[in-house]
Amino acid sequence: MVALPARDMADDDQDQHAAGAEGTATIASRVASICAMLEEHDTAETPMSSRQVEEISAMIDDVAAAAASESEWTTTGDSKRTSNKTPGCMRSTCCYEKLGKIGEGSAAVVTEARHLTTGQTVAMKAIHESCRSVSGGELLREACLMAACLGHPSIVALHGLARAPGTENDDYSLVMDHAGPSMDRILGARMRYTGWPFSETEARRFMAQLLSGAAEIHRHSIVHRDIKPENILVDGAGNVKIGDFGSAMSVAGGQISADAYYAAGTTKYSAPEMLLETPGYDARVDAWSLGCVMAELLTGEVLFNEKSASDQLWLIYDVLGVPGKEAWKPHESSFVASRVPLWRREQRRRRRKGRWHSRWLRELFPEELLSEDGFKVLKGLLTCNPDRRLTAAAALKLPWFADEDNAPVKNYAAM
Ligand SMILES: Nc1ncnc2c1ncn2[C@@H]1O[C@H](COP(=O)(O)OP(=O)(O)OP(=O)(O)O)[C@@H](O)[C@H]1O
Ligand SMILES: [Mg+2]
Predict the structure, then answer these.
(1) From CA 29, how far away is CA 343, in angstroms rounded?
(2) Which atom in ligand 1 lies closest to the alpha carbon of residue 266?
(3) What is the residue with the minimal CA distance to atom 18 of ligand 1?
(4) Are 350 and 344 in contact (CB under 8 A)?
(5) Ligand 1 atom, smallest distance to 103 CA
(6) Are the C-beta atoms of 152 and 75 separated by less than 8 Å?
């Protein structure tokens, strides 16, 4: 389950907060029930009929409307949504002129398009045919999870789903704001042209926005599971937005099957407990990924860059320390269990030779690169034990973000 951080609030705000919390709970439970419906189709391996897709798409529109009205964020996200569609009917791709490919991931291709009536530029995501499930519900799930967070300025704004006229079932696209190039591209270009990554001040501003976006996702009992530079988009004003909810899951209410807790997302940015496929992993897997992103913003390099889960775990433990017997207990039946005693032995050997110490992360991020306050955020996010790791909301309360000039888009510490 997602551990929602305790938030301080003034007495005056309590009624408003109670109403807001109720709205959040309703949105989270609506999202969970739509996801459960989609899961049933997946389990039964039955393709959805056009009518079922239409119905679920309408439910997603309702979630989006509820989220937008509940949202306290002063964003243009919702007002910009192309809304001239018949209520209850899916949008048609005929309303958009396709302009060209803007991105491609392992599962989908994203095209830039212009709405013919409003002139607004959008991004349209379609799943590669080879990656579609029998039920064809991937984009519906992704849209539903995005809809819950609609209105937050650090999350890509959903417009809805659109189908090409005359097509059936799974042949539809997800329409969203065209949010700009990915952080991966921006950082890569910066490294190529200047040779320098981002300064601490720049990294702090990005991190404030990303943590605020992640806290909003978690507030709706959603775990993103794939936060990484390729899935962070940077708009023209230099603001960052979290996108690609393709691996996200709802953890609101109900029983979640152990099968749902697989190593989703991308190995290089995955928290140890996700690599270990620990059932019940929660929103703190996203906090870990944000720690990896923060490290990369400051150095221009991927911090833990291995391909296989077991090599990645060793790399992480090599820097942060192999877990002790107590901390390792929940993972005793995991696929690397037989290696952990060897890793511990290796670390003891290195420690004797003076080649390993517990401040190794600080060696990689010395004071010249990152102040003590900044390091507390990095270290708090990159903590192997999820029970001791900072949540996104808790990270925003640390002194690194206290300076007004560097205030997050909206500081959760103030709520
Ligand atoms: N809203 C958007 N605005 C602009 N570009 C976008 C948008 N959404 C996605 N992109 C671009 O398209 C690329 C692929 O999109 P996305 O990450 O959603 O696909 P994916 O196949 O699910 O990715 P992955 O390989 O992470 O699973 C992104 O890395 C980004 O460059
Ligand atoms: Mg992606």
Answers:
(1) 42
(2) 26
(3) 244
(4) no
(5) 12
(6) yes
CATH architecture for the domain at 19-177: 2-Layer Sandwich (3.30)
Of all protein residues, the one whose alpha carbon is nearest to atom 17 of ligand 1 is 244
- 183-414 carries CATH number 1.10.510.10: yes
pTM for the whole thing? 0.90
**Residue 97 phi, psi (nearest 5):** -100, 120
Helix, strand, or coil (residue 356): coil
pLDDT over 90 for what percent of the chain? 69
Ligand 1 pocket check for 179: Cβ under 6 Å: yes
Going by alpha carbons, the residue nearest to atom 20 of ligand 1 is 105
Whether 157 lines ligand 1, by a CB cut-off of 6 Å, is: no
For the chain, report the end-to-end CA distance as a whole number of angstroms. 22
What is the CB neighbour count within 10 angstroms for residue 345?
11
Nearest Cα to 147, choosing from 283, 254, 30? Answer: 30
Give yes or no for a contact between 285 and 223, defined as CB atoms under 8 angstroms apart.
Answer: yes
242: which strand partners? 155, 232
What residue spans define the domains of the chain? 19-177, 183-414
pLDDT tens track for 215-258:
999 999 999 999 999 999 999 999 999 999 999 999 997 778 88
226 is catalytic: yes
Measuring CA to CA, how many Å separate 190 from each of 32, 298, 394? 40, 12, 30
